[in-house]
TrEMBL record:
NCBIfam families: PQQ_syn_pqqC. Residues 13-216 form the Thiaminase-2/PQQC domain. Belongs to the PqqC family. The lineage of its organism: Bacteria, Bacillati, Actinomycetota, Actinomycetes, Streptosporangiales. Ring cyclization and eight-electron oxidation of 3a-(2-amino-2-carboxyethyl)-4,5-dioxo-4,5,6,7,8,9-hexahydroquinoline-7,9-dicarboxylic-acid to PQQ. Keywords: Oxidoreductase, PQQ biosynthesis. The gene is pqqC. Its EC number is 1.3.3.11. InterPro entries: Haem_Oase-like_multi-hlx, PqqC, PqqC-like, Thiaminase-2/PQQC. This is Pyrroloquinoline-quinone synthase.
Length: 222
């Protein structure tokens, strides 16, 4: 593996949110219904901002091929039509957990720390370089394994959330693999100087902090 790729992969290995105490408690079956509902509600704020940050990334891409590739991400979340896509599936996860979709859509109850963390991610993609914006999505190299652990934990420990609610995670396993493969190839191709590479690593660290801060806020609140 090229040394820059190894440097990138080492960042989430050390500080991705699969290591966060809230996730460890989730996987061990220790979360209360209120905690799990709080997580779903607050994570919806992250989910609905993913296509917003992806639109900022899209605007930085210089070729039709790259823009077409990135547009697919926006469509994965927003769907090709109303009632489709990842945001809709997250709303259904909320409903399966007893949360009204209107509550999630209202934004009521989103914690201040979660708002700050998500703003931080969107602003990095708005104001950063192309390499920084794309590198910050590379936490997704680790997301598919985490999704699989989460699906197993939900089935085992939280059966009160119906199977339909887990579709978001099931579909996301393959999407995350494709997204992270494409993003990694783009960063390896475009980060040519030492300075570009250092910025890419710093952006990925920052993104790990975004996900960590989100869980810190949820962990402290319910
Ligand atoms: O539940 C998770 O642990 C998790 C993590 C991440 C991530 O690593 O940023 C994403 C997602 N889920 C996710 O569902 C998703 O759509 C997504 C998009 C992105 C991104 O940075 O472009 N990350 C993630």
């Amino acid at each position: 593996m090229n040394p820059f790729e190894a440097e990138l992969r080492a960042v989430p290995e050390e500080r991705y949110h699969h290591l966060h105490p809230f996730n460890l408690r989730m996987h061990a079956g220790e979360l209360s219904q209120a905690e799990l509902r709080g997580w779903i509600l607050n994570r919806f704020h992250y989910q609905r901002n993913i296509p917003v940050k992806d639109a900022h990334v899209l605007a930085k891409l210089p070729t039709s091929d790259l823009r077409r590739m990135w547009l697919r991400r926006i469509q994965d979340h927003d769907g090709a039509a109303p009632g489709e896509g990842g945001i809709e599936r997250w709303l259904r996860l909320g409903e399966a957990a007893g949360l009204d979709r209107d509550l999630l859509l209202s934004g009521e109850g989103v914690l201040p720390g979660v708002r700050m963390a998500v703003d931080g991610y969107v602003n990095l993609c708005r104001n950063g370089t192309l390499v920084e914006a794309v590198a910050s999505s590379l936490t997704e190299l680790f997301a598919p394994d985490l999704m699989r652990t989460r699906i197993a934990a939900f089935e085992k420990h939280y059966p009160w959330i119906g199977a339909e609610g887990l579709r978001y995670f099931r579909i996301r396993v393959d999407q995350g693999r494709q997204d992270s493969g494409e993003a990694l190839a783009l960063v390896l191709d475009r980060a040519r100087t030492r300075e570009d590479r250092d910025r890419a690593v710093a952006a990925l660290r920052f993104k790990c902090d975004v996900l960590w801060a989100l869980l810190d806020a949820v962990d402290g609140a319910y």
